[in-house]
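HOLO CASE FILE
Compound: manganese (II) ion
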Amino acid sequence: MKLTRAREVATVTAPASYFTGTVYQVPIVTAPDPARVNAASVTFTPGARTNWHTHPLGQTLHVVSGTGWFQTEGEARIEIHAGDTIFIPPGERHWHGATATQMMTHIAIHERDPAAGHITWQEPVSEKDYLGEG
Ligand code: MN
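Model generated. C-alpha cells follow.
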C-alpha cells in the first residue's frame, strides 16, 4: 500500500488555458498501470468554470460543498449541490463550475485512455452560456 499524507500534497491553481476564473486542484490519485483511475478535488471560486470538454472514458463528479452549475451541450444548465453525483458518458461535451455567487468543490474521477488520456479540452464557456442565457 501507499499512504499519501495531506501535508505532502500541494494545492495547484488550474491553468487559465483550460479554465475561466480561479480554480484550485488537489490531486487525490493517479493510479499506476495497469490501473487507470485519476481523481482530484477541484474548487471553483464564484464565476469560475472549466472550458467545454469531453472525457474519452467518461467522468464522475461528486459535489462535496457549495453550489455549482453543470451543462451538457444541447441541454439546460443545471444547479448542483453537496452530495450530488453526475456521471458524464464518454465523448459528451460539457462544462462544470461554481455559480456566479457561490463556491463549489467537487471530486472528479476519470479513467485514462492509453491513447487519448482522460480529457480533451475545447474552447472557453461564453458568459452567455455560463449564465444560462444561451
Ligand atoms: Mn468534465
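CASE NOTES: DSSP finds one helix and twelve strands in the chain. The domain at 18-130 is CATH 2.60.120.10 (Jelly Rolls).
CLOSED: yes
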